[in-house]
Amino acid sequence: MILTMDVGNTNIKFGLWIGDRMDHNWRISTRLSFSGDELGMMVESFLRLQGYALREISDLVVASVVLPMRPAIERLGTRYMGKSPIFVEVRSQTLMPVLYRDPREVGADRVVGAIAAFRHFRASTIVVDFGTATTFDCISEAGEYLGGAIAPGFRLSADALFDKARRLPRLEQFYKPESAIARDTLDSLNSGLVLGYAGLVEGMVGRIKGEMGHAKVVATGGLASLIADEAPVIESILPNLTMEGLKIVYDEKAF
């Protein structure tokens, strides 16, 4: 068994792999104050609920964009699993050439997700990831990471509205409104966010395809299903691309 770990600015996601199958996955909110002991106890409790223990994990494979958490993750591995975590880095992975001017600027999560998407389609691909940021990652027909675009994330935009416009309520649930012309505040917010982000995706994908030609379009991330329903340009949803990419890099010892 291996454990994959995607450390993002908002959430930390885990995937428990038994052979080639992700048996369980879960997420917790990211906190810079996490100690390795806190992470160890939380992961141990999640595994125990499934009938496993941390010491049964053969390796911990990590993609992280939150550098201050590295000491806690290292302690999680060395103290609670008896081995150092494997941190996948953009510059050291060998499965996908990265054509960014400075590859150090690209998050490892974006590249491992691109690796997994390319393995699914073996074709030019655009990955739309609905995370803290909404990212568009572009992969060539030759399997190169071309670059992409970054926009504010869906929840980030909703929270910014609440923080800056005091009369607007904080949205706890997102849904597709009955029409774009809404007649109350909650529907108006969901119209602007859900339908607005669908329009963002449609517009950005159209521009990207104008530059790179035909490409498969896949969505991932927590709100992928909600937006994909309103953005016909999205052809498929693969919710666990980062976890899959980490497993591919690990299996092929490409780190």
Tell me what the structure shows.
- There is one protein chain.
- With 255 residues, this protein is α/β, with parallel strands linked by helices.
- The chain folds into 2 domains: 86 residues, ATPase, nucleotide binding domain (Nucleotidyltransferase, domain 5, 2-Layer Sandwich), CATH 3.30.420; 145 residues, Nucleotidyltransferase, domain 5, CATH 3.30.420.
- Helices cover 37% and strands 24% of the residues.
- The protein has 7 helices and 10 strands.
- The chain has a 5-stranded mixed β-sheet, with helices on one face. A 5-stranded mixed β-sheet has the order 8-7-6-9-10, sandwiched between helices.
- The chain is globular, with a radius of gyration of 19 Å.
How would you summarize the topology of this molecule?
Layout: E1 2-7, E2 11-18, E3 21-29, H1 36-49, E4 59-64, H2 70-80, E5 86-87, H3 108-121, E6 125-130, E7 133-139, E8 145-152, H4 154-164, H5 185-212, E9 216-221, H6 224-228, E10 236-237, H7 241-251
Parallel strand pairs: 1-4, 4-5, 6-9, 9-10
Antiparallel strand pairs: 1-2, 2-3, 6-7, 7-8
Helix pairs in contact: 1-2, 3-7
